[in-house]
């Protein structure tokens, strides 16, 4: 069942995570749920190629039609494989549907130009980097971006047709799927999928495992509130995170702590009077140096630092 893009990790009876192989180009995790009479797929990875393999794997594992595909949020590494599921109905929050729809048709030239810029800046960062873990992560990122660059001419946007605000329930013959949204934290609108019978949570990027959570354009304060609500309201034994291996619910607390520490660190930096460049040279926050996507800590820092500077100057 494993392939070059993802490994299959069983989370519970009838539930599997398709866990992205670092550097393979698939980037985001996906999940497969056998609800008894039908199959539900959550997220579709970063590439049409890996999306096609996800569909084949889901069909082999469950031997049932994939009736529904849920997009947890609008980021490319969770929706770019959508086009490989044209027999399925797509579900998302209203806001995620609107965001995908407003992005319009794929603009091949513009997207490739932007990725080329990112590739150039990754080369630049790599040339000045000495930390071996960071060099590995930047190498992974470069191969992901090259794979996406090559895939863009074949990319088609697929917009969900079934939408919900805060809760949608799919009742299968064997198990129930609750699609829930508590608003936006990681993105403008994030959904999680909860399977109560198996006490399993498919978290999208609200929860990552030993992977730096990507913060820009989200709302870290709302994100913490959402995670606390999940801790309080849902009985969870197993988490399929948006990035990293299938895990236990202590990863929820790991992300809360990361967000709290980052907010505290950046707010101290923003009142220090020292320039952004000084802080960027300091590298990744203590304790998180060995997490995946370590290179995104700078991006988080820069975004939050500048947001806070604007607020402090009001
Ligand atoms: Zn995301």
UniProtKB/TrEMBL annotation:
The record's section on InterPro entries has: Metallo-B-lactamas, NDM-1-like, RibonucZ/Hydroxyglut_hydro
Pfam families the UniProt entry points to: Lactamase_B
Q: Known CDD domains for this protein?
A: metallo-hydrolase-like_MBL-fold
User: Which residues are in the Metallo-beta-lactamase domain?
Assistant: 27-243
Swiss-Prot/TrEMBL catalytic activity: 3',5'-cyclic UMP + H2O = UMP + H(+); 3',5'-cyclic CMP + H2O = CMP + H(+)
Q: Which SUPFAM superfamilies match?
A: Metallo-hydrolase/oxidoreductase (SSF56281)
Please give the start and end residues of each transmembrane region: none
Q: Which residues form a coiled coil?
A: none
Role noted for this protein = Counteracts the endogenous Pycsar antiviral defense system. Phosphodiesterase that enables metal-dependent hydrolysis of host cyclic nucleotide Pycsar defense signals such as cCMP and cUMP.
Q: What is this protein called?
A: MBL fold metallo-hydrolase
